[in-house]
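User: Please predict structures.

Assistant: First:
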Amino acid sequence: MYTQSIVAGLLSIAALTTAAPLTARTESGTYASNNGTLITTSSTLTMGVTSSASTSPVSSTPAPAPSSNTGAQPVASILPDFTSQYTASTGAIDFHTSRGLVSRLPQDGGKDITTLVTFELPTQYADHECQLIFDQGNDPSGYVTGTGKAQLFTSLASADEDSATWPSGNLRNQNLGTIQLSATGRAVWEAGSGPGATVEGKFPCSNIAGKVYGGEIVPVGDADTISWIVGRGDGPKILVW
């Protein structure tokens, strides 16, 4: 078990071991939106979830055995299957967007935008070590302004379609802490900002292999914007070692 200090990453081993695989948005239940509002769902939203994940974008083939990431290259880099924008003031979801966006600006009058992501880790990586990271600056059209901070949460169920309002929502679950981004480079965790992040975001891939997990990236501070193009190396990803 890894220690509970935070250096870099996105999701915690604690969250991954306590969260259930995503199967469907439940018929009823109360969830917190990113502006603190409690929302009760009233309809079932079926999710496209597989019990054996095998469709995530992968940059390379697996090695035959787990590999230490000291002085080595990852055997795979797993990008989110879906990236979606969520509007806090309305509960609307813009599903499967080409850009990730985390935004809070004083002139927007509380219309914060967060990004929802869905990861599916193939079962072939179950014996490896995983690491959750967030990169920025690979694509020049991405940018960071204001505080450059983001708070990370798991989702009880990931987005699966466009929606104009509730009850779909973000279905926010566990608080994972705060990361600090710059215009270029890898995000760094603020130590002690979340209850369960692991050192450098590392955890056994067996915790999520063959399962589907959702997460939410939320702005921090009065003025904060983080934007990236999906699929060009920026944003959240899972490294497999």
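Second:
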Amino acid sequence: MNRFVLHDAWAIASHIALSVLTSLFPFLILVTALAGVFGTGTLADEVADLILEAWPEEIAGPIAGEVHHILTGRRSDVLTLGVVLTLYFASSGVESLRVGLNRAYNVRETRDWWLTRLESIAFVIGGAFVLMAMALLVVLGPFIWRGILRWVPALQPFDGLIAFLRIGVATVVIVVGLILAHKLIPAGRRSFRSVLPGVGVTLFLWLLGGFGFSWYLEFYPGAYASTYGGLATAMVALIFLYTLGAIFLFGGELNGTILAAKQRRLGKERQPELTDVITFP
């Protein structure tokens, strides 16, 4: 927690929240354009649903309406003139995560800014294709299950399990995304084992935070509306993302603290070995 405060994580969490909120729509527009090129326009809606699946209903509902309104049209024009700006703004969310994680792991970015920006754009494009593939799985899942039931009718009692497919896919996206974020986005490289503590704590606190935020909005539905008026929907989403960003950085600081403690312990263990080989007359 001391590292969290000393690294200005509260301020960086607000930067992450605003960057993610402003990059969400350019990212979905890019997904829509890619889906339109491949002739699978409905996948854009599925990708949006997957992203918002883990959000509390009180927050995801109003945003989902705006998202689906934007994604109703065919956005193939984005792949021509607007592709550069779309990719740039969509990659800003990745860059905000890089700033926070570099501080959390106490590393300094030595690469040129344009190289890190290209890396962020590559993450955005790769994430778009991965989400499209998982959305296709969600779309085809019910058809595949019905085909299985025709051949094996005895599985009919398990028909309700197919409803967990969406939740399972959303969970996989979150877990894999967290692991890749901690391993690849900040400078340097970390082992898979070294990032697991922060990822586990982040998932647990995100779960608690989601339940807590849902409970607050359910029992105090007019709290934000009385304060922010017509901007209540945007402010609720921004505060929710701010909370998620702070928890995400706390997970990074936990990993950074553990790694720093291991380095200090290794340094103390090696120090006697160095003094043993020194002889004095």
